Model the fold of this input.
Amino acid sequence: MLLFSRSVSSTNEWAKRSALRKVPDGTVVVAEVQTAGRGRLGREWFSPKGGLWFSVVLRPKIEVAEASKLVFVASLAVADALGEFCGLRAETKWPNDVLVKGKKICGILAEINSSGKNVNYVVVGVGLNANFKVKEALPKEVVETATSIEDELGRQVDYNDLLFTVLGKLGKVYGVFINEGSDDVLKRWKEYAVFLGHEVTVKVDSEIFVGIASDVASSGALVLQLEDGSVKEFRVGDVTL
Ligand code: BTN
Done:
């Protein structure tokens, strides 16, 4: 089922309300504009017209730890779609960003509703900067670090074709994840992960760690080789290259 609205506060909120009303697995809600789009860690997500703002309701029969890897499923699908549909060389950044030439083009916000270890539903929200120029449509504070398909290609793309390409890829990667587990998804995700092998800064709350990002473990954790030679795994955090 695919639902479309001209304007909502946040497609993730819309999807969560729909999930509680028992919409089927795989329901997609899309909005032309979000008035209160949300990013990770309670941040604001600017969602002007021209972007692809949607959320999917999923009901996988897996445990919470596995479901937390859905951010890799979604960012891999977007990276594949950007390559195939736009000819753009996408990069993934742990845990849930897609970049082009080091600038953020897409963010994923996955929200899990669970009872104990078991997942009731997951809402996976995808925000892809598409048919607008960042300088004209987004606020000053993100202009240096964000990009869009229009900025990268110098032209707009067909909105529906883009949406269905991304959804098609998402369906494919999700199918592999559900049927075969996360190994292949993580392996392919890492092929886009240009930050691996480089020095990064990881911020967790107010703590800052600097080291070489050596791997993403099978759990989805970021593995960092710290300057003192020790190895630390991160389940949450913000990475700066
Ligand atoms: C991030 O990078 O911090 C995540 C951004 C996620 C944005 C998308 S847009 C569609 C969906 N609805 C929201 O309110 N957020 C996600």
